Amino acid sequence: MTYRPTVRGRRLAREIRRLREEQKLTLQEVADRLDWSRATISRLETGQTRPKPGDIADILDLYGVPSPERDSLITLARQAGQRGWWTAYQDVFAGSYVALEDEASHIRTWDPQLIHGLLQTEQYARQVITAGRLLPNQEDIERRISARKHRQGLLTRENAPQLHVVFDEGVLRRPIGGPGVMRAQLEALIEAADRPTITIQVLPYSAQEHAGLDGRFTILSYPDPADPDIAYVEGTMGDVYLESAEAIAKHRDRFDRIEAAALSTEESAHLIAEAARSSP
Q1: Buried b (16+ CB within 10 A) or exposed e, 36-45
Q2: Predicted confidence (pLDDT) per residue in 233-246, tens digit
Q3: Is the peptide bond before 68 cis (omega within 30 degrees of 0)?
Q4: For residue 230, what is the enclosing H or E element?
Q5: How big, in percent rounded to 5, are the helix, strand and coil portions of the chain?
Q6: What pLDDT does 84 receive?
Q7: Mind listing the pLDDT tens digit for each residue in 8-54?
């Protein structure tokens, strides 16, 4: 089973790399001292393999890491190795995004084409998945619908993240699934916007050129300062995860510009309601 690193897994990987660099050891030198392969050390430091607490303990002992730091990192390894609900849908979720989204405290997202997956109704999602994924049979479609429902449970948790969604006005106007499906989706958006943890804005046609023309993206933020923001860019040829300070700052600025150009939450709610009423 392919390992999809969680936020804790990524934090652990950064820490063990930092500790090695502080000791001024190369990957090969660590591998030789532990009688492991260089590739094993590299995969642990890049979050490409599930960390075993015993292996992490051996590395920490080699680096001479004392408690309580040693204990906390071994605990982190145990947490990073835990399987989340999404592991039951490895056939659906190809990358790490859902695992990273699941631990976020703040999600900011821009989409010029679709309602965000966390806010899609079942019928809207079914039409999007059927048309966009080109899946061979109904069973595959239903499998993805089930996975999306589980993912949406994130918004009803006691510690639900803040979700800030901005999408283009064209998203309201394209009747995906037909008028009935679209009207129900728009009504669901109006209801979702009443939740204190959800902010919905619409970028109107009148905005003309804007900072979101390069396409959709998401910024994930976390409650622990040790976990830096992650910018996620989804594409048909693969997903990109951006973590450098420069890339994150660029995407924060891009989102801020899109947010500023969008209608206020009140104006957006009125526009969504108007689109729902005008849907046959």
Answers
A1: beeeebbbbb
A2: 987 666 788 888 89
A3: yes
A4: strand 230-235
A5: 55, 10, 35
A6: 81
A7: 888 899 999 999 999 999 999 999 999 999 999 999 998 888 899 99
Tokens standing for 241? 């995860």
* Residue 199, strand partner residues: 164
**Domains contained in the chain, CATH given:** 7-82 (1.10.260.40), 86-278 (3.30.870)
Pairwise CA distance, residues 95 & 222, whole Å: 19
Q: How far apart are CA 127 and CA 182, in angstroms?
A: 10
CA–CA dist 6, 108 (Å, integer): 19
149: Cα separation from own chain's centroid: 15
Distance between CA atoms of residues 150 and 11, nearest Å: 25
Task: Write the CB contacts of 107 (distance below 8 Å, at least 6 apart in sequence).
Answer: 101, 118, 161, 162, 163, 164, 218, 219, 220, 221
In eight-state DSSP terms, residue 115 is -
Task: Tokens for 28, please give them.
Answer: 């090969």
- 156 DSSP 8-state letter: G
Residue with tokens 């899109």: 258
Scan for tokens 């048309």, then name that residue.
131
Alpha-carbon gap, residue 58 to 62, rounded angstroms:
6
The radius of gyration computed from the CA coordinates of the chain, to the nearest angstrom, equals 22
Nearest to 270 by CA among 204, 184, 177: 204
Beta bridge partners of 167: 111, 202
Exposure string for 104-130, b = 16+ CB within 10 A, e = fewer: beebbbbbbebbbbbbbbbbbbbbbbb
Which residue in the block uniquely carries the two structure tokens 């405290």? 105
Tell me if 128 sits within 8 A of 174, measured CB to CB.
no
Here the tokens at position 162 are 């803040």
The backbone torsions φ and ψ at residue 218, rounded to the nearest 5 degrees and listed phi first, read -135, 140
| CB-CB contact of 230 with 241 (8 Å) | yes
